[in-house]
Amino acid sequence: MLEREAPKNPPLVTLTDVAKHFGAVAALKDVNLAIRAGECVGLVGHNGAGKSTLVSIINGSLRASEGRVEFPLSAADDALAAGVRSVFQELSLCPNLSLAENLRIAHTGMRGWGWRRRAGTEISQSLDALFPSHGIAAGALIETLSIAQRQMVEVAIRFAPLGGKPQLVILDEPTSSLDAGIANQLLDAVRRFCARGGAVIFISHMLGEIFRVADRILVMKDGRIVADEPADHFTRQGLVDFMGHVAAEPETLQTESRRELGEIVISQGGLQARRGEIVGLSGLAGHGQAEALATLYLDATSAWRNPGNPPMVFVAGDRKRDGILPLWSILNNMSLSLLSATARWGLVDQVSERRIGDEWKRRIGIRTESLSNPILSLSGGNQQKALFARALVSRAPIVVMDDPMRGVDVGTKQDVYALIRAEAAKGRTFLWYSTETEEVCQCDRVYVYRDGAISAALSGDELTEARILEASFEMQESSA
Question: What's the whole-model pTM score?
Fold first, then answer.
């Protein structure tokens, strides 16, 4: 790793003795921080450590309970005027509007005759600069795009001029839905932006990305910054230790002695899975993996009559669209999959529901004082934990997972891997689409998708990152 000298430029934003309280809960405590022009600051910590609260204070969407937030370089009174932009893990696009119309919402000064044409030009130029060969039309409706394309659009809107040059861009898990190739394009763009004098706060649970782009790394734990050092002063294990979770090398999903697999329980569209098998789906994002899982799941679960125990259960990666019920409590979101199995005379067994909820809160480490709190009171990663608990608490023999590790911290990933191994050993089957190649390499077998079809089925010694990447591109090359 190349050493990078820390920038000596003046600070764009400073935080002095900042704290944030939500009732009796202290989300931030005694934060002192300066972000300077020309630097990329990596921000890491487990789900619920205070990262999202910190950047919400910086961008002005939350007001600090104590302390000061100032913008010395611009002398602006607020974050927007100082050129602060944010891309959050929960995307904010309006699905029934086009790319150009969504950019217009972020840029209220764009008005008058021909604003759609100007907005279309601006968003297209931003996409071209960040993601060459993106293939997204400015007039396309957001609802017609894949989740990876939506994430690209959200990032492009925040980097667009919008009537003024962005000075500080906050990126919260910006690559969580992107495949490796597109993610690399974004990381390169971040470095170029900082080299031109911009600043970036980069939040990611993918530590390799942090080391690649960050000049400085901040580690948060329990609402405090517990480490603030140049990136080359850290190792991966050192970061994990600072976050408070002891995890050496990533655990593998497979045990030393390969599990005994049962009969074939899935055979559809060229995809097969046996009882007790962990099957991965890989390839470039948007090439049919999510559609294959959706078709399989809907075909198996669309019966008019409730079968009692469902044949399959689904863990959504796009939790906002496909996962959480935002008006319900954490407990109600978790227990949804077992209500029919535990109900008595058509009534919810609340004692059983609470007991099971408390057990899974402990097992999967959901950070909340009460499961009666609204699901939206949780951080994004903790919301994802609740969706995992909903799936694993059910009695469904097959678990379908659509890129479920989006925004989940490294410690939680290890815990979930252990749960998956234990459930597979009991005979449960997992179908797992992931944009993280390292993750799918831990499965028993992997189907690689290209242009909506399976281009390779890999297992054993063939199951390597190099073979997955080769299969992801080979159909494109053969047709060139």
Answer: 0.67
Tokens of 424: 């597979």
- All structural domains of the chain with their residue ranges: 11-243, 264-478
Angle CA 444–271–295, to nearest 5: 120
DSSP 344: B
Q: What's the gap between Cα 206 and its chain centre?
A: 10
**What dihedral angle (degrees, nearest 10) is formed by the CA atoms of 156, 161, 163, 168?**
90
Rounded distance, CA 100 to CA 148, Å?
Answer: 18
Centre a 10 Å sphere on the Cβ of residue 74 and count the other Cβ atoms it contains. Answer: 15
Q: Which tokens is 426 given?
A: 């009991």
Q: What is the mean pLDDT of the chain?
A: 83
Nearest to 186 by CA among 151, 147, 141, 211: 151
Report which secondary-structure segment, H or E, holds 224.
Answer: strand 224-230
Fold of the domain spanning 11-243: Rossmann fold (3.40.50)
C-beta neighbour count of 300 within 10 angstroms: 17
d(CA 362, CA 4): 42
Q: What is the per-residue pLDDT across 141-156, written as a single tens digit (0 to 9) for each?
A: 998 888 888 889 999 9
**Dmax of the chain from CA atoms?**
69
Do residues 46 and 205 touch, judged by C-beta distance below 8 A?
A: no
DSSP letter at 303?
Answer: -
> Would you state the structure tokens that stand for residue 317, as one six-digit string?
């990666």
Closest CA to 403 of 296, 286, 265: 286
203 sits in which H/E element: strand 199-203
C-alpha distance across the termini of the chain, in Å: 36
* pLDDT computed for residue 265 by the predictor: 87
- Superfamily holding 264-478: P-loop containing nucleotide triphosphate hydrolases (3.40.50.300)
Radius of gyration of the chain (CA): 23
Single-letter code of the amino acid located at 34: A
With a cut of 80, say whether residue 328 has pLDDT above it.
Answer: yes
Contact between residue 393 and residue 356 where contact means Cβ atoms under 8 Å apart: yes
Beta strands per DSSP E along 232-335: 264-268, 271-274, 278-282, 312-315
| Residue in the structure block whose two tokens are 């603030």 | 228
15-29, 215-229, 310-324, 438-452: range with lowest mean pLDDT: 310-324
- Cβ atoms of residues 279 and 432 within 8 Å: yes
Q: Count the neighbouring beta carbons within 10 Å of the beta carbon of residue 359.
A: 12
Report residue 217 as tokens: 């790394």
Strand, coil or helix: what is 193? helix
Identical fold between 11-243 and 264-478: yes
